Amino acid sequence: MAGFRGVYPALITPMTAGGELNEAALREVIEFNIQAGVHGFWVAGGTGESVLLEDEENMRIAEIVSDQARGRIENIMHVGAATTARAVKLAEHAAKSGVEAICCVPPFFYRQSDEAIVEHYKAVGAAANLPLFVYNLPQATGVEITPDMMQKIQDGVPQLKGLKHSAVTFANVRAFSNMGLQCLVGNAMLMLPALTIGASGCVDGPPNVAPELWVEIWNAYNDGDIHRAEAAQEKASQVTDLVRSIGLHAGTKAILSERLGIDCGAPRLPGQPITPEQRTMMRQRLNELGIGRAAVAQSGD
């Protein structure tokens, strides 16, 4: 196992036409990424629309990813919730489902004291007794986990293993790494520079759709081939641009549907599906990047 190092796509949650969890498509997306060489998944996080799902749906996702992975990669299951009781319930189930680790946003909506945040993580960590990753996503939670705050969590939560660092304070990657934490950078465009200052890998939504590009960044960097790594990062960043131009949820689902020849559905409401104009643009851009279905078919001739 990679030891929580490498490429960890933030897994999508495919939906049926009726807006329900599409288990068959989820299994195909998981397998596609595993075969591309990813080291694990960040499950039911922001890209996975977890806050729009029922707790029972998130629990079923934990069961599916564990079953499909069969120990081949490391699943880090998000159990974050607005209340400690819900997060504890999800953490307990995640441990029973067989995931390798859990992750959790800090309590959100109501601003809590540092002491309350530490107590929240203590309860969640104890409930699962698995490696715990803090999910540092202040753009969504309104709470930034600074190095000082992380030190308090580290002092109080024995299960703490690391974090996904999605805050804009990029320099804190180095600080978290120097604390002995596994710091997974949460911006797919910054994987390579983050590795050079101590990051242990990358978690983001775009690697779902073209995992081979981020795996190439990882492999090239670890081979000491910085020019190859830079070329891979540039192409990966162009894919990220494409996803972001459509929208994270609609973009990741539409591109995976196109590449795999399956239907991953639309975002859960209030999220909106891709438009016909966006789909036409997406297909053209994927072919220009050499990863669209037409481009792949042509290369195989």
What does this structure look like?
This protein is an alpha/beta fold. It is built from 13 helices and eight strands. Strands 1-8-7-6-5-4-3-2 form an eight-stranded parallel β-sheet. Strand 4 (101-104), helix 4 and strand 5 form a beta-alpha-beta unit. The mean pLDDT is 96.
SSE string, helices as H and strands as E: EHEHEHEHEHHEHEHEHHHHH
CATH architectural grouping of the domain at 6-212: Alpha-Beta Barrel
Counting DSSP E segments of at least 2 residues, the number of strands comes to 8
End-to-end CA span: 37 Å
Q: Ranges with pLDDT <50 over ≥5 residues?
A: none
Q: Tell me about the largest β-sheet.
A: 8 strands, parallel
Compute the number of helices. 13
Gross geometry: globular
CATH superfamily of the domain at 6-212: Aldolase class I
